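sanity check this record:
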Amino acid sequence: MKLDTKPYEEKMQKTVNTYEKEFSTIRAGRANPAVLNKINVDYYGTPTPINSLAEVKVPEPRMITIQPWDAKVLKDIEKAILASDVGITPVNDGKIIRLAFPQPTEERRKELTKQITKMGEEGKVAIRNIRREATDKIKDMKKKSEMTEDEQKQSEKLIQDVTDKFTKMMDGVVAAKNKEIMTV
């Protein structure tokens, strides 16, 4: 009986998806509403995401506008953005908040690519940890005589192939984000 790789593939896919989502919040000079995803506004005592309180638009490549449905919450949104680590000062005209994204310097872009590459390595380590979990399971099944030595070798090769596939996928995600940052 060979090892079912499905649960391990799902875990590896979740790892890649998590890092992809994390990369989308990294500011690359272009206006990306995902940078606001981690910011919550205190709305009547409840931490609420900005996109639940306002319409968030990208009218031009380096600008995000935030137009709250309730004008009273405008100041709170502005305070939340200032308190966050987005690194952009909001401009409030009384109706709309504008976030202007400056062109990142060459040094800042290189810094961001290093950060993304490091995060990508962490993602690959997480994928390899899932592989180790699977190989431990394979060894345990062999020890309990639930699989033959040939099945053990086939299962180990199978899980290694899956690991290689997701490691390449993680490399692709990192390369795409780094390219986006360097070509801004």
Q: What stands out?
A: The chain has a mean pLDDT of 87.
